[in-house]
Amino acid sequence: MLPKFPGEPPRDLSRPLEQIRFLVDARYDGARLDVALAAVLTWRSRESVHRLIDGGFIKLAGRKAVASRRLKTGETVLIDIPPQKQATPNLEVTLHFPILYEDQWMVAVDKPPGLAVHPSGRRLDGTLITELHRRYRRPDEPERDVVPRLLHRIDVETSGVVAVSLDEQFHHLVARQFEDRDVQKVYLAVVHGIPKEQEGTIEFSIGPDRRSEVRLKLEARTDGTGLSALTHYKTLRSNARYSLIELRPQTGRTHQLRVHMAAIGCPLVGDKIYGGDASIFLEQLAGNLSEASLAKLVLDRHALHARHLRFFHPMRNETMEIEAPLPDDMRALIGD
Fold it and tell me: Between these two residues, 239 and 213, which has the higher pLDDT value?
């Protein structure tokens, strides 16, 4: 939350943030200015806090403050917020995914399967966020240099909506919505078979699979152990082999949708861990996935798609609903 000075009216979040007054209380008595500001301005990095101090944007008793200044209870810290940088995308950068929505505060894209959202391990380039950095970063023009930041993540094999912030204040306010589970997420999955009930709720807890040689594998539990998990599902249509399922997770556990669908006897098509033969995952890990395994998978990725994202846009003061169409590989399995 933004700090509130005693007696000030509620902040108008539809207007750009220009100034903050921060009253030092006992929590920050004796603390260094930079440490206190990092705790109060939670949406800014320590580096950006130092930029504010060094740039003269922080004042105590009407004077420019220094980072090492020790605060005293009852003092007022005045924070001038520099003008927001407006995203000016470099349209010459070729993105390998469609843009679903874009404004000066955020961008939402339709991530294809196989594209990682951020660098990890040996993968340092060729990710969604590195492509967006090429589109928006302007290191040589600090006043226009916008840093895209992921608001959430989806697996490398999962396709669909990914939202990315282009503004620090926006990131702080919307990331909090994700943390508080105020964001509505809807997924589509193509699964083997047809669920016994057309729709329902899966409420198995989730924990590590103690019998699997795949260390990443989780299991659904009914013995009261593990982390609670809740998924609402609805069968949209089926054919002789597969069903298209709408999934609405109420919790956000690792592999939750894949574990829950496998637990009711309808694993996702292409799921190398929960599809019934975890040795396929070990084959892939070793880099020698056989033709027989590929045929058994049907798809070379698990058939999960982030279809819909619903959240409140604090700068526009309106609810956003962003959708990504069902990708062709999943559509081919289930038909129109």
Answer: 239
Instruction: Choose which CATH entry (3.40.50.2300, 2.40.420.20, 1.10.260.40, 3.10.290.10) describes domain 19-80.
Output: 3.10.290.10
The answer on pLDDT for 86 being more than 90 is no
Instruction: Check 29, 103, 155, 300 and give the catalytic one.
Output: 155
Rounded CA separation 261/250 (Å) = 15
Pairing verdict, β 218-221 and 205-208: antiparallel
Domain made up of 187-305: CATH architecture: 2-Layer Sandwich (3.30)
Active site (annotated) includes residue 103: no
Whether 3 shows a pLDDT value over 80: the answer reads no
How many whole angstroms separate alpha carbon 165 and alpha carbon 174?
9
Count of beta carbons in the 10 Å neighbourhood of residue 261 = 27
Q: How many residues does the chain have?
A: 336
Which residue's structure tokens are 């993540």? 153
The answer to whether the Cα torsion of 12, 17, 22, 28 is positive or negative is: positive
Q: DSSP class of residue 333?
A: H
